[in-house]
From TrEMBL:
Residues 3-239 form the GP-PDE domain. One of its GO terms (biological process) is lipid metabolic process. InterPro entries: GP_PDE_dom, PLC-like_Pdiesterase_TIM-brl. It comes from Salinibacillus kushneri. This is Glycerophosphoryl diester phosphodiesterase. One of its GO terms (molecular function) is phosphoric diester hydrolase activity.
Length: 257
């Protein structure tokens, strides 16, 4: 399998991040998958938004967790990006799943629970993804290792990845110790040794956020399992230059615990 190209928050260089236009563009650009961020509203509805606070990506202020879904839907999540996206609304996870379930795209759902550890987030999201029949093409990820442990307990066969921006020793061992089969790292954490070690232990190594051609080349040469990019069109054309790019298919998934 080639290094998988995930549109980071959708094709977020070209349309407002984590909105339907950004997801639709990623699909049209033939990305392999979509990465998105999930948080919970006051009424415990999972919604796709990166920040805990709505300020940066909407015309509102305050925390997602203090809004009901109905209140959140009134916000404009597009005009901060460009006036041509005025009145684009925040997407619920359910709407996203409805849209993606008829397609073959892979999913990476990132739990944004390292600042606010939303109670029930894993449970609610897991059951919704399962009900839409896309569990086997979904990887759940988080910077919060306790959240990944909770997911692995909920369903030991689910794909989970630990996210990190830090170069720490014994990272692959840590990933194994919390029962994950994936490791998502910031580009500066990537090294040949980490790629080799991940391969040895059957851990899917994916790298964010890869927007520059030189970074893409390195990830393709190291046969990383995936990259997250705001420019999936560029990554797709770049990958075509690496015919030997190949990441082993995990026939025997990493055995947890
Ligand atoms: O999931 C990869 C990447 O999205 C993690 O960082 O801050 O862009 O959500 P962030
Ligand atoms: Mg993310």
């Amino acid at each position: 399998m080639r290094t998988r190209i995930f549109a980071h928050r959708g094709a977020s260089q070209y349309a407002p991040e984590n909105t339907m236009p950004a997801f639709q563009l990623a699909y049209e650009m033939n990305a392999d998958g979509i990465e998105t961020d999930v948080q919970l509203t006051k009424d415990e509805i999972p919604v796709l938004i990166h920040d805990e606070n709505v300020r940066r990506t909407t015309n509102g202020t305050g925390f997602v967790q203090d809004y009901t879904l109905n209140e959140l839907k009134q916000l404009d999540a597009g005009s901060w990006f460009s006036s041509s996206y005025t009145n684009t609304s925040i997407v619920t996870l359910e709407k996203f799943l409805q849209w993606i379930s008829s397609k073959t795209l892979e999913l990476n759902i990132e739990f944004k629970n390292n600042v606010i550890d939303y109670k029930n987030l894993e449970n609610i999201v897991y059951h919704m993804v399962r009900d839409y029949g896309v569990l086997d093409r979904t990887t759940f990820s988080s910077f919060n290792p306790r959240s990944m442990e909770r997911m692995n307990k909920l369903d030991p066969n689910v794909n989970t990845a630990f996210l990190t921006t830090s170069k720490v020793r014994r990272l692959t061992q840590f990933v194994q110790s919390i029962g994950c089969n994936g490791l998502h790292v910031k580009y500066r954490v990537l090294s040949t040794q980490l790629a080799e070690e991940s391969d040895k232990y059957g851990i899917d190594l994916r790298v964010f956020t890869i927007n520059r051609p030189a970074q893409m080349s390195r990830c393709f040469k190291l046969n990383c399992a995936g990259i997250f990019t705001d420019v999936p069109d560029l990554a797709m054309s770049k990958r075509a230059n690496y015919p030997n790019n190949h990441n082993p298919i995990r026939i025997h998934p990493f055995q947890r615990r």
